[in-house]
Design a protein that fits this description.
The complex is a heterodimer of chains A (378) and B (300). Chain A contains eleven helices and 20 strands. With 378 residues, chain A is α+β, with helices and mostly antiparallel strands. Chain A starts with 11 loop residues before the first helix and ends with a helix. Chain B has a single domain, classed as Ribosomal Protein S5, domain 2 (2-Layer Sandwich), CATH 3.30.230. Chain B is built from seven helices and ten strands. In chain B, the strands form two sheets. Chain B has a five-stranded mixed β-sheet. In chain B, strands 8-7-9-10 form a four-stranded antiparallel β-sheet, with helices on both faces. Classes of the chains: A alpha+beta (378), B alpha+beta (300). β15 of chain A pairs parallel with β1 of chain B, so a sheet runs across the interface.
């Protein structure tokens, strides 16, 4: 005895959860994606770099950007660190400045530097960063390094100021004045003692914190545009040295476990909060637009007639800006391209993850064309 | 050394935020919003902006702007737990400032090394765990919200509330007041997020903040030093030490049940605490009325 199995049918949203690949194929066969976009349509991005007041309300933030795409919001903030240059690297700076300013072709990779991004995706877990966050951070670091966006010379602190404390005898108040070699050259003629501190050369280090709210799809593109936007917004401050700061540090005694306070006087680096002396970071290029694509084999019905099903044609379709569970889990052949304003390709990554829908040269060419077109439009 | 995050070369120094070399010497701090609201009635509650459901990958979320504070709360849960059976849900709150924000009172708690310790070279982006201030806020919010949730309905599950502070008030505020104001609004925002997450609650928790000065007058929803404007600066400092600040949270429909109280500063006696609680209750009712109409509107 055999019982006949009844055919079960699911509503589209349930089908999308159970068999995303079938749902995706059904969407594609009628020429539409599950997110209702066209095959080569990108999700709109809103960038608000100058509309936010993060930079003005936080003294330690020097550039910021907020990028929104759908519900995903990305807040990027740039803070600064300072690193002392070693002698060998300073000599290359000088050569670099003398020889060329515009011609980047002669420069090698070690004359460029990158940012140090920390990606923080709001995902309802605390603790160490996830693999995704770590990979994304490293990817962004390397992309910006190899796209030769930030030259080391642009981050060099050229005129390190000196703060001098004058005690007013009448009012017994300390009056601090900051002098810079390029603005107040007359002061520095008479300052031989401080020359040893001033001989050291320093460079800025750019830290980026990228907070991602409501992540629903791959976010490399969004993070990249957010960071690029924050870098365009970035204004570097002046830095001055104080020689007089005396701080108390706690020192552990050798014989016991108690700690005592010892006053030390050491020179320290400070950021001058004078807005008028801020200067924008010089970027070697515009940075460009990052796009991602996926390739998937679909079956196109040549004729609507039910009898001639054999005439179906299999085509590998190119989809732009993947989004949603169905596309992300099903499409494994991916291309990621960054094209700058001069239509130069800054980064290209290609993963042929799906044997059935391999990325052919033709598809790659189409993806590059679309990416170039997009970089022009934006 | 942190191998999981990119925190820059090892010999990087975080420079101190120094002074400005401008002629007048002091940096003018932007005073957006504060001066404009000062003209309004003393016992009015500051306008706030509230929005729910903005975080797609959370079960519920709320976003609140008040003054210059920007708070985002995401609720994750009920989520299944691993391990042995529990007959009621567990509940946790984690409150975090974005790393670049100077936290209210960090000069007292010495949490943010970046600003205090000249010999430290820690990048704030690499901070792990919560600071003392974040712990303080988290534990208050957790205590206040815990009685409202019907945990028995969710065996073998957890609720995790994540609060992100995107912006805080400008430094014109006294740090205690800044911290307590922030906590007050986080409680209000988090209860709306719980509703957005469809968590079964006994009542929506709302809270209020009051300040009492030396003469014992209660000011509801204090906003900076507005009421002391005419006084001299040093007189203000004296007053700040005498001032008593209080935050209290209530379940207004559940017989005004008090679910959290935090009083700080000055000489506190029973009389004053009663006054503070009553003042907070008044404010919490006003906020509750606002939230009620917001929730009714969002259903339509």
């Amino acid at each position: 005895m055999t019982t006949e199995l009844k055919q079960v049918s699911f509503p589209p949203e349930v089908l999308a959860r159970i068999v995303p690949e079938v749902s995706l194929q059904r969407h594609l066969s009628i020429g539409l994606r599950p997110n209702l976009r066209n095959f080569l349509e990108f999700k709109p991005i809103e960038i608000a770099s100058h509309a936010n007041n993060i930079t003005t309300t936080n003294d330690n933030v020097f550039g910021s950007s907020i990028v929104k795409s759908g519900n995903s919001t990305i807040v990027t903030t740039v803070t600064l660190g300072v690193v002392e240059n070693t002698n060998s690297s300073t000599s290359t700076f000088n050569n670099n400045n003398n020889n060329n300013n515009n011609n980047n072709n002669n420069l090698t990779n070690d004359q460029f530097t990158s940012i140090y991004p920390v990606i923080d995706i709001q995902r309802g877990r605390s603790g160490a960063p996830s693999d995704e966050e770590m990979i994304l951070s490293q990817n962004l670091y390397e992309t910006i390094l190899h796209s030769r966006l930030i030259s080391k010379a642009a981050l060099k602190i050229n005129h390190c100021g000196l703060a001098i404390k004058e005690t007013d005898i009448n009012s017994d108040k300390d009056n601090i004045q900051i002098f810079y070699p390029d603005i107040h050259p007359q002061v520095f003629v008479n300052l031989p003692s401080s020359s040893s501190t001033l001989k050291k050369s320093y460079s800025f280090v750019i830290f980026c914190h990228v907070k991602v709210f409501s992540k629903i799809s791959t976010i490399f593109d969004l993070c990249y545009s957010s960071i690029i936007d924050a870098l365009h917004d970035l204004k570097l401050p002046r830095v001055y040295i104080t020689d007089f700061s005396s701080t108390k540090i706690s020192v552990k005694s050798r014989n016991s476990n108690t700690r005592g306070l010892v006053g030390v006087s050491k020179s320290s680096l400070n950021i001058d909060l004078n807005n008028e002396l801020y200067y924008p970071l010089e970027l070697s290029s515009e940075g460009g637009i990052s796009c991602n694509f996926g390739a998937i084999k679909t079956v196109k019905n040549k004729q609507e007639d039910e009898d001639i099903t054999m005439e179906n044609e299999e085509v590998v379709e190119l989809l732009a800006d993947l989004e949603g569970e169905a596309e992300e889990s099903t499409i494994l052949s991916r291309i990621s391209i960054i094209v700058d304003g001069n239509e130069k390709i800054k980064r290209l990554s290609l993963i042929n993850g799906d044997i059935n829908s391999e990325i052919s040269l033709d598809i790659l060419q189409r993806a590059i064309d679309v990416a170039k077109l997009r970089s022009r439009n934006d | 050394m942190d191998r999981r995050r990119l925190l820059g070369p090892l010999n990087t120094v975080i420079p101190n935020i120094g002074i400005s070399s401008e002629i007048n010497g002091s940096k003018s701090t932007p005073q957006t919003g504060i001066s404009s609201s000062s003209s309004s009635n003393k016992n009015d509650i500051e306008n706030f902006f509230l929005k729910t459901g903005i975080i797609e990958n959370a079960n519920g979320s709320a976003y609140l702007e008040v003054g210059n504070n920007v708070i985002e709360v995401s609720v994750f849960g009920p989520r299944p737990i691993r391990g042995s059976f529990i007959d009621r849900a567990s509940f946790s709150v984690e409150c975090k400032f974005l790393p670049y924000i100077s936290q209210p009172g960090d000069e007292l708690f010495n949490t943010n090394n970046q600003f205090n310790n000249s010999n430290s070279n820690t990048n704030a982006n690499g901070r792990t765990g919560l600071t003392t201030i974040e712990h303080k806020i988290s534990s208050y919010v957790e205590t206040a919200l815990l009685p409202s949730i019907i945990l028995e309905k969710y065996p073998k599950s957890t609720f995790d509330v994540f609060v992100t502070i995107v912006a805080t008030e400008t430094p014109t505020y006294n740090s205690n007041e800044k911290l307590m104001r922030l906590t007050n609004w986080i409680v209000n925002c988090a209860s709306v997020a719980l509703v957005d997450a469809n968590v079964e609650v006994k009542d929506i928790v709302t809270s209020g903040i009051v300040k009492s000065n030396k003469s014992g007058d209660i000011i509801i929803d204090p906003r900076g030093q507005i009421e002391d404007e005419q006084n001299e600066q040093d007189e203000q400092d004296d007053q700040n030490e005498e001032n008593v600040l209080g935050v209290a949270s209530f379940m207004n429909l559940n017989n005004d049940q008090l679910v959290g109280i935090w009083v700080e500063g000055g000489d506190i006696d029973q009389d004053l605490v009663t006054k503070v609680i009553n003042g907070c209750n008044d404010m919490s009712k006003k906020i509750r009325a606002n939230i009620n109409s917001f929730l009714i509107d969002s259903l339509q």
